[in-house]
Amino acid sequence: MELRVGPPEAQHSVGAIIWGQGASADTLFASSESQSTTDYSGYHVAFDPDQGRHAYEFSAKESGDAMALDPDGSAIQVQSENSETS
């Protein structure tokens, strides 16, 4: 099974990846970051590994640097970077 964070044509790498816990235990979260040092775009998705597909996508479009879940797994925080914060 192959799970893509961004579209195949995007030159991105996974910037952050975490397994859900508690309420989100069956979910894999991932963010991407561009391989170019001048491109701050990113994709942020939640995967359903049992179904082998995206469960949903996040609206943030900046480069993904880190992710964290609250203790019960019901809220996620994504740290991203853009041209103004780099």
List keywords for this structure.
single chain, 86 residues, mainly beta, four-stranded antiparallel sheet, two-stranded antiparallel ribbon, flat
Structure, explained:
With 86 residues, the protein is mainly beta. It has one domain (12-72). The chain has strands at residues 12-19, 28-34, 44-48, 53-57, 63-69, 76-81. The chain has a 4-stranded antiparallel sheet, with no helix packed on it. A two-stranded antiparallel sheet has the order 5-6. Strand 3 (44-48) and strand 4 (53-57) form a beta hairpin.
Topology, please?
Blueprint: E1 12-19, E2 28-34, E3 44-48, E4 53-57, E5 63-69, E6 76-81
The structural class is: mainly beta
Major sheet strand order? 1-2-3-4
Could you tell me the mean pLDDT? 90
* Radius of gyration, CA atoms, in whole angstroms: 13 Å
SS summary, helix count: 0
Helices and strands, in order, run as EEEEEE
CA(first)-CA(last) distance: 34 Å
In short:
By secondary structure, this protein is mostly beta strands. The protein contains no helices and six strands.
